[in-house]
């Protein structure tokens, strides 16, 4: 039975544990509420730099998507994901995110002038520019310092340009380096998202099951405890395990995912725990006799 067909078996309107960021399915843990408040605070106070970090799969990108829904029309947004490279590359990433289409022949000075003109013209039109960098840990110290230099466009009492950086925990480590002390001083607010604890994992899984028309009991409490252990509380990994567990359960025509279902996933090598954290392995259907996706 495919992952799509288990929805009919359980009576779901859609798959409750997809991996794509979905603000409609966002479960507001205490950490997520606080992180979102920090993002909102940065917007409202026009903070030059706001930073939110967390392990891979803790819901940072979903928070960004939720934030984008709430932004008013007086803001121009540039969303940059996985940007890498030097300062020329950085400006090209930024200009592309703002639909400004830089040419390959433009020098750094020309790129910067194009960006500065856009920010100032937007301000003249009553708008401010916000650049959101997802996976910002990939930028590195030198490029982060270049970002700080971009905020020098701001002048007077009004902030023409705001930066929001979202990334993995190493982003905090990079920012704390001595050579980035001036950058750190410009960070107005920051928050770190932690993995879910056992109680929150139970609430999270039941929330997503109910959100698609389920009862919330399609996965047993004992199975959820095991999922919590295997996932280390990382929401994205929880989603992967739950999705595959529902596939297995429906394939056996079991209306409830049990501990034995999760154990089967482990025995089949579909999920396993490493010393460095959770790891999900997908095996082909012909290897396991069951379709993972």
TrEMBL record:
Domain AAA+ ATPase per the UniProt entry, residue ranges: 46-190
Gene Ontology molecular-function annotations: ATP hydrolysis activity
UniProt cross-references to InterPro entries, sorted A to Z: AAA+_ATPase, AAA_22, ExeA_AAA_ATPase_DNA-bind, P-loop_NTPase
Pfam families: AAA_22 (PF13401)
Family annotation (PANTHER family): GENERAL SECRETION PATHWAY PROTEIN A-RELATED (PTHR35894), PHOSPHORIBULOKINASE _ URIDINE KINASE FAMILY (PTHR35894:SF1)
Top-rank taxon: Bacteria
Name the record gives this protein: Type II secretion system protein A
Lineage: Bacteria, Pseudomonadati, Pseudomonadota, Alphaproteobacteria, Rhodobacterales
């Amino acid at each position: 039975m495919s992952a799509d067909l288990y929805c009919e078996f359980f009576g779901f309107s859609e798959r409750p544990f997809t991996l794509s960021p979905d603000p409609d399915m966002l479960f507001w843990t205490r950490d997520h509420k606080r992180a979102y408040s920090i993002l909102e605070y940065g917007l409202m106070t026009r903070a030059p730099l706001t930073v939110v970090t967390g392990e891979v799969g803790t819901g940072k990108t979903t928070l960004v998507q939720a934030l984008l829904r709430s932004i008013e029309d007086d803001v121009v947004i540039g969303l940059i994901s996985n940007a890498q490279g030097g300062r020329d590359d950085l400006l090209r990433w930024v200009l592309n995110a703002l639909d400004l289409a830089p040419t390959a022949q433009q020098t750094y000075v020309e790129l910067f002038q194009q960006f500065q003109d856009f920010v100032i013209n937007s301000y003249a039109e009553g708008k401010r520019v916000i650049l959101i960098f997802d996976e910002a840990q990939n930028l590195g110290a030198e490029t982060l310092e270049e970002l700080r230099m971009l905020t020098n466009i701001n002048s007077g009492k009004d902030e023409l340009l705001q930066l929001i950086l979202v990334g993995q925990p190493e982003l905090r480590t990079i920012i704390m380096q001595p050579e980035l002390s001036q950058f750190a001083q410009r960070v107005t607010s920051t928050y770190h998202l932690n993995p879910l604890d056992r109680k929150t994992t139970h609430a999270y899984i039941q929330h997503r099951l109910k959100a698609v028309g389920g009862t919330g009991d399609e996965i047993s409490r004992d199975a959820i405890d095991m999922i919590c252990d295997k996932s280390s509380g990382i929401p994205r990994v929880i989603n992967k395990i739950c999705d595959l567990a529902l596939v297995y359960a429906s394939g056996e025509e079991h209306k409830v995912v049990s501990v034995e279902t999760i154990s089967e996933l482990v025995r089949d090598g579909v999920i396993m725990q490493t010393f460095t954290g959770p790891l999900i392995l997908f095996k082909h259907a012909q290897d396991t006799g069951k379709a993972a996706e």
